[in-house]
Amino acid sequence: MRSLFWFITLFTVATAIALAVSLNTGYVLIVVAPWRVEVSLAVFIIGVVLGCLGLYALSRLVITTLSLPNRVQAYRLRRSRNRARSALYQGLTAYFEGNFRKAERQAELALEADESPALSAVVAARAAHEQRHYEARDRYLEKAAGLGQEARLMHLTTRADLLLDERRFTEALDLLREAHRVAPKQVRAHQLLLKAQVATGSWKAVLDTVDLLEHLSGIDATQAERVRRNAWQQLLRHNAHHGEDLLALWRSIPSSVRSDNVLAHTAAGYLIDLGLHKEAQAIIERNLEKEWDSSLVALYGECVGESTLSQIEKAERWLREHPENAVLLLTLAKLCIRQSLWGKAQSYLDASLFIEHSREGQHLKARLMEKMGPGRQTPRNNPDLDPEYGAA
Fold first, then answer.
1. By the 8 A CB rule, do 221 and 214 touch?
2. What is the CATH number of the domain that holds 368?
3. Total domain count for the chain?
């Protein structure tokens, strides 16, 4: 349809020109002594037009001929860049496909052609690292480091990531601290920094990094909670031999974190080991009021508080809410033994074993029967009883 349109248009124009020439009676007289030239106006106009077109074509030919060397050079440069860009794309594709040898070779070709040198050097370094060619890896990274400030962050994070994979945590940590100074809000750098801090046991720094990553949406809430819990657990473990330091650390933990039952179990266990039963009991009771946890209930039986009777009363209130909890029944049995309430201890113990058989329950029952004797008499003068079942 388009070809037909142009044909009709050209035909119309040619017809109009032919009619205009046939109807025009004018002429042009050119006198150049001793010559005299007389032509029709239409022929003169057509000649002028054709002459201008010829001059234009001649000038374009001369310009093209003179610029031919530059055009050839530009073409060669463009072809070289296309080849280098293709090599980089092939290197990236090979890297993600797992063909690291080809990835390194193609990225090195792109690097030699100066095609995205920072990216090419990083791809080549990562491919060499995957092949355990550490000298080549370091050589590529040095090239990336020499590319100036624009490639600095890429160089720092890449080198740190590869060092972490090589378990050279301290060196990686130094690089990531520098990356933090270069780009305080770069998510990937802080993710690697968190990994290095966990590996080196920098737990207070871990807490700060997790908070920052959560603010930058660089870590999901579940993972952040898990990392934060682990950090506090490790800090508690480091202070597990000093009661005052342990309590001070526990009080410094945000209240929202202290409600974590796993963390509360860790802290209470260390406090019991140090003989700080009152503090451990307070932690367990506070957390159980918020959320039920059988492991905390089991640990509650190890606490020797100021009043065992008050512990029994509290545990019996819990029993009304959790009547078939075998762990709670076993804990009540321990508390009753400590208070010399043998009948209640036996009933709680039998109920616990009826719901769930446990090795601890069987052992406790055997010891209780041994202390009570064949006549099921209340044992007397048994100072070793309390230490067997959780006394201080």
1. yes
2. 1.25.40
3. 2
